[in-house]
Amino acid sequence: MIKNLKIYQTIILVLLVSLLTACSSGNGEKEGSDSKSVTLNAVSFLPKDHPLTATLYDWIDSVEDATDGRVKVNWRGGADVIPIGEQFEAMNSGVMDINFTYIGQYQSLAPETLSIALSQLTPSEERENGFYDLMVDQHEKMNVMYLGRWLTGSPRLWLNEPIDSVDDLKKLPIRSAPNYTRFFEKLGIASAMIDPSEVYTSLQTGVVKGFVYGGFNGPRKDGWTDSSKYILDHPFWTQNCTILMNNDRWNEISTEDRDAIIAATADYEKEMVDYYTELDKEEIVELEKIGVELFKLPKAEEEKFLNLAYDTEWEYLEKEVPELVEELRALTMKEK
User: Domain 155-238+292-332 has what CATH class?
Assistant: First the structure.
């Protein structure tokens, strides 16, 4: 009887060890490492099938590869999952883990993030000179981890008719967005905040005489170039789309995997810039085929336009974060 009891105890002990081993394997621990598996939920302000979000799939794959599959990203969708205006708060509060967003959604909480749009450097250069680290620090104050950029390119004005001077923009109704308000007011533009789904009709009916758009890809596919066939080819600012993560969630990831994600994001940014630069070149060819024309203002007018674009925003930052402006300017300007 006692012998049988010992046999049963041994069998039970073996089963318990096997069960614990299985559980340990199931949570994704790497042998000799404290890294554990985690799935992060993400939301974006653009739809998953939008041409401008194409490289986000590459970032997601690179994160999984860099962490040997321990960190996975479940991209849930865009505004169909959470309205755009609520996405940052959803990430910030932990409802979502990651937000593929743009600074306009949270700039009021940290005005210094406007410098991301004013940067004249590539994401790689920003990492090398310390600007990236500064942005990490400033985002951390909002309980957010700033991982990097996911889009490149610069905004341009697309118009129904060409112009000869900056003054020609006065009172011109242009489909805009909140982050252009200060600059457009200086230009005298009559900004119109119109939902993307209504832009085509607004252009066709003359409610607006053009629009502002970051990069080249999108307007042709959406039919906006049926009306606006002239692009003022003076790019200003830069795309300010950021990859953000809830900082508490970020800190739950092992140091090993956090380092791997940062390195993978830096590599991704280089490929992302190359991808969209080439995509813009291809799109310009397609735009020219349908009669869309890129044009420039006389040199003096170009300088006036660009000076207004940058000076207006730096003046704003001098009022909002005077203690940071000098450092931000130094870190975002191209060396001459």
Answer: alpha beta
